[in-house]
Specification:
Blueprint: E1 6-14, E2 17-24, E3 27-34, H1 39-56, E4 64-74, H2 76-86, E5 89-98, E6 108-113, H3 123-135, E7 143-151, H4 153-160, E8 165-169, H5 171-179, E9 188-191, H6 196-200
Parallel strand pairs: 3-9
Antiparallel strand pairs: 1-2, 2-3, 4-7, 4-8, 5-6, 5-7
């Protein structure tokens, strides 16, 4: 089937991550994989990202695609405040639940959700996800751990300065710009997740 052929057009790496870019079905698909082996690599990724964001903010973008990672699970109320105050346009978010205290990786429960009809946290959807958590031995969700969306430069500056925020990741825009010369006008989609799981394995205070 010629329609599903993939052509590799680029790959690269940085502190704690690597990516591949393929051409598939008329678009460029970029997949970013986090594999930090040390706390230092996470620190380097954050520092590099903040520097890249500083450069992006001077380039006149009205909006930047971002992945926001919090220091720890954030209450729905506080997460909503950060969204509203920064003007973050939310595409989706992840929730963290714990089973048996969550000390072991297999005792961490992640659920994905998205706004619906103008409601950031749809009640019926959250109730269904909470039922799923209870079925595996958890209770209530600890809170929101990451959000994907779009943010103005002003919103970026405000949100990234909040103490609850670990990183406002701009790598989607960075890689799309970097690969635009090879894309020949084709749309570029960058798949980027939050590194929360890795950061959670370290002491939060140290991870700054």
């Amino acid at each position: 089937n010629t329609g599903s052929q993939q052509v590799m057009i680029g790959r690269g790496e940085g502190p704690g991550y690597w990516y591949t870019a393929i051409e598939k079905e008329g678009k460029i698909l970029v997949v970013v994989i986090f594999e930090p082996e040390t706390l230092e690599e996470i620190r380097q990724y954050v520092a590099e990202n903040r520097q890249l964001a500083t450069d992006l903010l001077t380039q006149g973008y009205a909006s930047l695609p971002v992945v926001v990672t919090f220091q720890k699970p954030l209450s729905f109320t506080r997460a909503a405040e950060l969204v509203n105050n920064s003007g973050l346009e939310v595409e989706s978010y992840q929730l963290r639940g714990y089973i048996n205290g969550g000390d072991a990786p297999q005792d961490r429960f992640t659920a994905g959700c998205a706004p619906r009809g103008g409601t950031l946290f749809p009640k019926d959807e959250l109730e269904m996800l909470t039922e799923d958590l209870r079925e595996v031995g958890g209770e209530e969700f600890a809170g929101v751990i990451s959000i994907k969306g779009a943010l103005s430069p002003k919103g970026y500056s405000w949100l990234s300065s909040q103490p609850e925020v670990f990183l406002v990741d701009v790598m989607k825009r960075v890689l799309a710009d970097e690969l635009s010369g090879k894309a020949s006008g084709k749309p570029i989609e960058v798949l980027l997740e939050s590194p929360y799981w890795f950061v959670e394995n370290y002491t939060w205070s140290e991870a700054q």
